[in-house]
Write a structure and sequence with these properties.
It contains twelve helices and nine strands. The protein has about 300 residues and is α/β, with parallel strands linked by helices. The protein folds into two domains: about 140 residues, Aspartate/ornithine carbamoyltransferase (Rossmann fold); about 150 residues, Rossmann fold (3-Layer(aba) Sandwich). The strands form two sheets. A five-stranded parallel β-sheet has the order 7-6-5-8-9. Strands 2-1-3-4 form a four-stranded parallel β-sheet, with helices on both faces. Strand 3, helix 4 and strand 4 form a beta-alpha-beta unit. Helix 5 crosses helix 12. It is globular, with a radius of gyration of 19 Å. It binds phosphoric acid mono(formamide)ester and norvaline. The site of norvaline (NVA) has 9 residues, from helix 6. Phosphoric acid mono(formamide)ester (CP) binds next to helix 2.
Length: about 300
């Protein structure tokens, strides 16, 4: 039966663990130029409603490296733009391609495509979640910090799609997650409350960036204004003013803490140049690991 990857909660602890191990092995193989063409003859489709640099390019390169091909479609290029239904689109694409990555606004649209597709569907970001991002980030944390158990991971900023996937990751994996968001920009209540029921006091939510970052092993942030929210930019800039990752905040974390940002960054807003380009930043290794994680994901979901 086909498997989808729409949210981190679609995977068990054992599946996430196996995926991370496989990603590390394939990363080493790729550095030695020894990747095998396990997806030769397979085609991955990408339908994107929002811009992308990392997700698009890392999926495309990962697919090419495993011997497969890709077809990229902006949804404007497809008949979805002329009201063909998601169901019909999913049924037709399933006859042509072997897997589909979708980046869109409404998570319900992704779910509808996945429900009707006979091929694996992967979430390449919705307004609600960004699971590929967070699994890639966890690969980076494991590389830099080893065992996840007892790590303190801080999220400072918006309670957005990436934050939601971090909350789901904390349900499945044994780290502590401390979130600090401005009032009014907290994660969705049902996602946070469900996760807290499952993960207990390993997930802590508050409004104080200092409380989240104090003693942290990892500090994580993201843009204050996500794609689709540009009209709110002015009020968001004001609301998030005290949530910047700068040198003063970084010094409250452990001296060897790493800083993560999924990118794209608005330098000088949510993160300073000093931190982004400083010795604690793992941000560009993090971006690279998107490709290594997704290569393992494609190999698993699309491989025979
Ligand atoms: N982090 C991330 O998903 O980047 P893109 O929007 O460039 O794909
Ligand atoms: N929260 C951001 C992530 C971009 C990769 C957005 O949705 O725009």
């Amino acid at each position: 039966m086909k498997r989808d990857f729409l949210t981190i909660l679609d995977l068990s602890f054992e599946e996430i663990d196996a995926l991370l191990r496989r990603a590390s092995i394939l990363k080493e193989d790729s550095k030695r130029g020894e990747l095998k063409p396990t997806l030769a003859g397979k085609t991955l489709g990408l339908i994107f409603d929002k811009p992308s640099t990392r997700t698009r390019v890392s999926f495309e390169v990962a697919m090419y490296q495993l011997g497969g091909r890709v077809i990229f479609m902006s949804s404007q290029d497809t008949q979805l733009s002329r009201d063909e239904t998601l169901r019909d689109t999913a049924l037709v694409l399933s006859r042509y391609i072997d897997g589909l990555v979708v980046r869109t606004f409404d998570d319900a649209d992704l779910q509808e495509l996945a429900r009707h597709a006979e091929i694996p569907v992967i979430n390449g970001l919705t307004d609600l979640y960004h699971p590929c991002q967070v699994l890639g980030d966890i690969l980076t944390i494991q590389e830099k910090k080893g065992d996840l158990k007892s790590l303190r991971i801080a999220w400072v900023g918006d309670g957005n799609n990436v934050a939601h996937s971090w909350i789901n990751a904390a349900v499945r994996l044994p780290f502590q997650l401390l979130l600090a968001c401005p009032p009014g920009y907290e994660p969705k209540e049902e996602i946070l409350e469900t996760a807290k029921e499952l993960a207990g006091d390993r997930i802590f939510y508050g409004n104080d960036p200092l409380a989240a970052v104090r003693g942290a092993d990892v500090i994580n942030t993201d843009v204050w204004t996500s794609m689709g929210q540009d009209e709110e930019r002015r009020e968001r800039l004001a609301a998030f003013r005290d949530y910047q990752i700068n040198g003063d905040l970084l010094r409250k974390a452990k001296p060897d803490a790493i800083v993560l940002h999924c990118l794209p960054a608005h330098r000088g807003e949510e993160i300073t140049d000093e931190v982004m380009d400083g010795p604690n930043s793992a941000i560009f290794d993090q971006a690279e690991n998107r490709m290594h994680l997704q290569r393992a994901l494609l190999d698993w979901l699309l491989g025979v």
